[in-house]
Specification:
Blueprint lengths: L6 E4 L2 H9 L6 E4 L6 E6 L2 H16 L1
Antiparallel strand pairs: 1-3, 2-3
Amino acid sequence: MLQAKDFFYCYNKKLFSHLLGEGFSYIFTARHISTNNQFWLFEQSDELGKALVSYKQLDKAS
């Protein structure tokens, strides 16, 4: 059974663009019920984890 830890909720537009550029597809997009902020839902994986680490390194360098 899938649990919340099996998903990554992305609220950052720059990170979202990075993930798309890395070839990831999101499951769906929605708005947070309380804040109305848009988010994109991705399935968690080792590859996604590596892409998140590379984004953090790129973001620190800029």
